[in-house]
Amino acid sequence: MAKITVVGQGECEFEGQFSMLEALDENGFDMPYSCRGGNCGACAVKLLSGDVEEIQSPAYDVREGEILTCSVIPLTDVEIELL
Ligand code: FES
Hints:
8% helix; 36% strand
């Protein structure tokens, strides 16, 4: 299972939840989000290391180096940072 590290907040395991956001939510992280559907961009974070896979095609265009936690799952251990 992949480990998700949130800089300054801690880490948790990804255990097959629907999205990275759901895994972080379940583990008590205070993550920003709104639509959960890849539309608003509220859940965008910086991906510092690791690989992710898109689970839905987001309408929102993230900047280079950023991911939408509602729209991806980690493929490897990842390190992310809130914007
Ligand atoms: S919560 Fe809106 S794009 Fe992720």
